[in-house]
Structures are given as C-alpha cells and as structure tokens.
Model the fold of this input.
Amino acid sequence: MIKDKTIIEVNDLIKKFYDVTVLNNINIKIKKGEIVVVIGPSGSGKSTLLRCLNLLEQPSSGKIIFEDINISDKSANINKHRQKMGMVFQHFNLFPHLKVIDNIILSPLKSLKLEETAANKKATELLKKVGLEDRKDSYPSQLSGGQKQRIAIIRSLAMEPDVMLFDEPTSALDPEMVGEVLDVMRQLAKDGMTMVVVTHEMSFAKDVGTRIIFMDDGKIIVDTDPKSFFEDNTNKRVKDFLNKVR
Ligand code: ADP
Ligand code: MG
Done:
C-alpha cells in the first residue's frame, strides 16, 4: 500500500435539495489508510456527504475525484468506480429473501464475474473472519442486529473495495451488540483499509480514528487529529456537541 497517496478528493462540493443548501463548499483530501471519523449534530450533512462521495447523490456543483478520476463528471462510469467504495448503512440493507451466503456472493458473481466456487470460498473466509461461518445458510430475519451488520460489512468487503464508507453503522443496534460491530471495524482499520466513518461512538473516534472531521450546518468546522479534537478543542459548537454525546 502506498501511504500518503490521495484516494478521494472533494473539491468545492455544494449540494442543494431544491433551494436548501445542505453541503456548503466542502473540501477534503483523504489519503490511503486514513480512518476519517465524521461527527456532528443531526442534520449537519454527514450522510449527504458520504452519499456524494460515491455519487448516490449527485453534487449540485464541485468535484469528487476518486483514484485520480473525476467520478462526478457525467462521462464517468460510476458503477465501475462505485464498486471500489463499499458502503455500510445504519439499517443493514441485506436482501431478506436471500440466505447469508447468497447475500455475500451476489455482487461478486454479477459484477466481478467470479466463478461460484471462488465466490463461495471467499465468502466463507470472510464469514470465518467475523465468526459467523455457522450462519451462512441462515436468512437475515434469523440473525440479531449485530450479526446482520457484520454480514453487511463482509458483503461489502467481498467486492474488494479500496475504501469503506460507514454511515452510523451501530446506531440501530441494541447497546450490547455495538461492540461486536466496532470490533470488526477495528480489525479492518488494523488491516489497512481506508475508512470514512460517520458515528456517534466517541471511543471509536478516539481510539481508531486517525482524523476527525466535525460538521455543522453543511460545513466542515474542524478537521484535525483525534488528540487535538478531544483534548485541545476550543470551538464552542464542538464542546456543546461533545457534552451532549458523552
Ligand atoms: P446528517 O446525516 O448529518 O443527520 P443529512 O445529510 O441526512 O444529515 O441531512 C442534511 C440535511 O439535508 C437535513 O436538513 C435533511 O433534512 C436534508 N436532506 C437530506 N436528504 C434529503 C433529500 N433527499 N431531500 C431533501 N432534503 C434532504
Ligand atoms: Mg445521517
């Protein structure tokens, strides 16, 4: 892995829904291997920013450059680039009618054109990694929330992404299941994955994050390292927010 190589660059990003400006001139450069934790109050634009990164939302103006290609350009083959960005949502989004294993191999078969044997092998390895190999023939409805989210994560990983985007992956979970999902994310970070994580889990932000972005009202207010963010922050908006979530 080439560290210090920029993997995602956001230039002058503006996103409006009708006449409401939800992202107001965002600029970020994310390097390979960074664990960027995005925090901020509800409605500040965190989800919209993540969704703009992989073009689930079309920017109103500005550019998203991913692996040196301007993917916000109309001529870009967005499906091809999006495959390289895994995304995990608050609500798992597993296919309820498919078994765990079939949820995992669906995209590799379709988009990566893997043979079924190879796809199954890969899926089984990933299941082992998160301790769920015995659930491969279960349906999502037979799993706990924490198990579903671990499956959703490895389903993304099966596509061999270069970056993983997480939008509040533990917010819908019962408290006792948060840890098992964060553990998987911790391991992924250790393995060198580039990650952008929207979360309210401040211990994760502190221990695993290499960089903290604080958003408020569609803008990046603070972009710094975790130590500075949690120990030396003087920004009143940040202080108020931290007092609420702690
Ligand atoms: P966060 O994830 O930080 O809570 P969001 O990115 O979801 O914030 O939302 C930012 C703002 O954009 C909110 O005011 C929200 O109501 C608005 N918004 C988000 N998605 C849409 C949409 N599809 N249409 C209109 N407004 C939206
Ligand atoms: Mg959100």
User: Anything to note?
Assistant: Strands lie at 6-17, 20-31, 35-39, 61-66, 69-70, 85-88, 163-167, 194-198, 211-216, 219-224. Residues 17, 22, 40, 42-48 surround adenosine-5'-diphosphate (ligand 1) (CB under 6 Å). The chain has nine helices and ten strands.
